[in-house]
Write a structure and sequence with these properties.
34% of the residues are buried. The protein is 40% helix and 25% strand. By secondary structure, it is of the alpha/beta class. Strand 2 and strand 3 form a beta hairpin. Helix 2 (51-63) packs across helix 9.
Length: 269
């Protein structure tokens, strides 16, 4: 009986030790084409940088957890990797029912993001409600979600080409393949400027949607144990307007990187 007792104690100690070793390193990734929120670093293409990446890094640095921020591929693949547990955290993600099945969202939301309808200049149309998009040919990226309500509406009523890259949306609009595309306001303008076609593009004044942006742990990640700590620390950062300050910081980083490649991001932000 004594031997069994000591074996049980040792087993428990080994289990606790293993648990303590969990999450010494965290893998964070995000949308590689969504500046200034997140994008693939021009100066270090193996990594993602941006507003939400630094917010997550701040908390993990306080916890003494080392951080890696790899580029793992297009947005749809990044989400899939989080579902499989290959990525511990998605920094900067909308909430919908499908994603809630494999992500544990950190509350509160970091910021509100406007999604808009982009057209070629001079080809704008009346847009007051989603029904106004019926019968028109549009575009969106694979993996993007604009909320459960719009996603369902799109499936039932709209014609949208789905592509992997932001540049494809702009190219298809230029070539007349699509009459509009749907994308975040900031990244849409940023990519148009980077490609040198900002003057050819406009966006309709009424937002398509306004969605909250979150941090979210993979349900398969051992690091999700820090979810409550993250929630507490994020409240403090938000109260101190840190997300807004980081948006300004990373707008400048994006402009500098674009200028270094021979493009100009004007200060229309």
């Amino acid at each position: 009986m004594t031997n069994i007792f000591f074996v049980g104690i040792l087993t428990l100690l080994f289990a606790l030790s293993a648990q303590a070793d969990e999450c010494k390193k965290v893998i964070i990734s995000s949308d590689s084409e969504y500046p200034p929120i997140s994008w693939r670093d021009t100066e270090d293409p193996d990594n993602i940088i941006g507003t939400v990446i630094e917010l997550a890094e701040m908390v993990f640095n306080d916890l003494g957890v080392s951080v890696e921020t790899p580029y793992v591929g297009p947005w749809k693949r990044t989400l899939r990797y989080s579902e499989l547990g290959h990525v511990d955290m998605i920094a900067g993600v909308y909430m919908n029912e499908e994603r809630k099945s494999y992500l544990d969202y950190v509350l509160p939301t970091l910021m509100v993001d406007q999604t808009v309808v982009f057209t070629l200049k001079g080809q704008a149309f009346k847009f007051e409600q989603w029904d106004d998009l019926k019968g028109l040919q549009g575009g969106r990226r694979l993996g993007d979600s604009f909320g459960d309500s719009f996603d369902q509406f799109e499936q039932e009523h709209l014609k949208l080409d789905r592509v992997e890259k932001s540049e494809q949306l702009l190219n298809m609009l230029q070539r007349g393949r699509n009459q509009y595309f749907i994308y975040g306001l900031y990244p849409g303008l940023a990519y148009a400027e980077k490609m040198g076609i900002r003057n050819e593009l406009e966006y309709l004044p009424k937002p398509l949607t306004e969605e909250n942006i979150y941090l979210a742990f993979s349900k398969k990640s051992p690091c999700k144990k820090y979810s409550h700590i993250f929630s507490h620390k994020m409240k403090i950062l938000i109260q101190n307007k840190v997300p807004e300050l980081l948006v300004e910081k990373y707008l400048e980083v994006w402009k500098r990187q674009a200028e270094s490649t021979g493009n100009s991001i004007k200060a229309y932000f």
